């Protein structure tokens, strides 16, 4: 199997994992980036308060998403882009939780995505004083990007996995994970839907 996956990154409006306000997606085929997409999202009702801390991090404000597609309106587009790929993210637990929780908050069933954490990959591949995304991405040859821009972050995640696979001679995600002693995480069941 070739090195195929989709890197994903979410930004959130507040501390609720259901408060997705932006997504970035990068499709990799055979170890090469072949498609990218990113857009703003109007967070689900009840999860749509923008906290100052989050705004300071990513710069997205309520007025920026007022005309954006809601989670249910953009969900099919996101899933169509990702297909059946393994999803790669830096601290994948966070991003997969956003995907599951925003889906649950809007009554949608999240596909059973498998995932690989580029943070874990970076820790096993590079010797760094910090494994935050900018430092890990720079080690992978992807420096000077707009950190906390969802698409730029997804592109950085993709580069870490591409570079790590090249370094260990892994032809696919599973072989890379095995070579580094990390796991491709199996899907977690969608949490119970929020009751209105």
Structure, explained:
- The structure is a single chain.
- With 196 residues, this protein is of the alpha/beta class.
- The chain has a domain at 5-118 and 146-156: Nucleotidyltransferase, domain 5 (2-Layer Sandwich).
- It has helices spanning 52-58, 62-65, 71-82, 92-105, 118-125, 133-139, 150-168, 173-180, and strands at 5-12, 20-29, 32-40, 87-89, 115-117.
- Strands 3-2-1-4-5 form a 5-stranded mixed beta sheet, with helices on both faces.
- The longest helix has 19 residues, at 150-168.
- The relative contact order is 0.20.
What is the CATH topology descriptor of the domain at 5-118 and 146-156? Answer: Nucleotidyltransferase, domain 5
Average pLDDT works out at 94
Query: CATH class of the domain at 5-118 and 146-156, please?
Result: Alpha Beta
Give, in spatial order, the strands making up the sheet with the most strands.
3-2-1-4-5
Count the beta strands.
Answer: 5
Unreliable runs, pLDDT <50, ≥5 residues?
Answer: 190-196
| Helix-strand makeup class | alpha/beta
Bulk shape: globular
Residue share in helix:
40-55%
Number of helices: 8
User: What is the radius of gyration computed over CA atoms, rounded to a whole number of angstroms?
Assistant: 16 Å
- Proper CATH architecture of the domain at 5-118 and 146-156: 2-Layer Sandwich
Strand composition percent: 15-25%
CATH level-4 homologous superfamily of the domain at 5-118 and 146-156 = Ribonuclease H-like superfamily/Ribonuclease H
């Amino acid at each position: 199997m070739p090195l195929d996956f989709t890197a994903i990154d979410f930004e959130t409006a507040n501390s609720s994992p259901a408060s997705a306000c932006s997504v970035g997606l990068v499709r990799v085929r055979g170890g090469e980036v072949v498609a990218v997409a990113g857009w703003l999202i109007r967070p689900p009702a009840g999860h749509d308060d923008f906290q100052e801390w989050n705004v300071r991090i990513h710069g997205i404000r309520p007025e920026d998403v007022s005309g954006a597609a809601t989670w249910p309106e953009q969900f099919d587009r996101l899933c169509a882009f990702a297909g059946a790929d393994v999803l790669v993210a830096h601290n994948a637990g966070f991003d997969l939780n956003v995907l599951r929780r925003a889906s649950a908050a809007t009554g949608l069933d999240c596909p059973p995505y498998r995932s690989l954490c580029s943070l874990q990959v970076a820790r096993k591949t590079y010797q760094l004083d910090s494994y935050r995304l900018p430092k890990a991405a720079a080690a992978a040859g992807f420096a000077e990007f707009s950190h906390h821009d969802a698409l730029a972050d997804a592109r950085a995640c993709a580069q870490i996995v591409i570079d790590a696979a090249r370094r260990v001679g892994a032809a696919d995600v599973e072989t890379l994970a095995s070579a580094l002693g990390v796991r491709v995480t199996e899907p977690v069941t969608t949490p119970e839907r929020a009751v209105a």
